[in-house]
User: Which sequence fits this backbone?
């Protein structure tokens, strides 16, 4: 494996020395491009009682391409599919090398507070979010309790 770029080393050190509130990102010892992420659901959201596990991978051409991130914990959300893939502009067409790991994690946390059912990845969830919002919120809370409560 090639040497880790200075940028990844700096970002990793900052994540450890100045952690993002309610988010931990720990690199794997055997591959420092892989991170185990733990994200607390934001207050005021249907996910607030949960702690969600994610995986984050920095491709070889990072920061020219976005990190690969997915939820490992099941979640009921219109922008996250059953495989844990995330529909978020900064992970796709709005990626910029100026963004960092911490920015991405904060964006994912913000997505939990503000789902966008008009740009869904999970179509059935988005339809319920738009058609029966109260039921969708109740289901999101139920899934959080079932799958993301420590």
Assistant:
């Amino acid at each position: 494996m090639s040497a880790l770029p200075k940028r990844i080393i700096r970002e990793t050190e900052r994540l450890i020395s100045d952690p993002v509130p309610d988010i931990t990102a720990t690199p794997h010892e055997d591959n420092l491009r892989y991170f185990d992420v733990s994200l607390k659901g934001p207050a005021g959201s249907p996910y607030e009682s949960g702690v969600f596990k994610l995986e984050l991978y920095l491709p070889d051409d990072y920061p020219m391409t976005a990190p690969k991130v997915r939820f490992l914990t099941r979640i009921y959300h219109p922008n996250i599919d059953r495989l844990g893939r995330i529909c978020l502009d900064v992970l796709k067409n709005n990626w910029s090398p100026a963004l960092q790991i911490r920015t991405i994690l904060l964006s994912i946390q913000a997505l939990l507070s503000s789902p966008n059912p008009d740009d869904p990845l999970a179509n059935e969830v988005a339809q319920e979010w738009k058609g029966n919002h109260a039921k969708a919120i109740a289901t999101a809370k139920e899934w959080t309790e079932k799958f993301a409560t420590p």
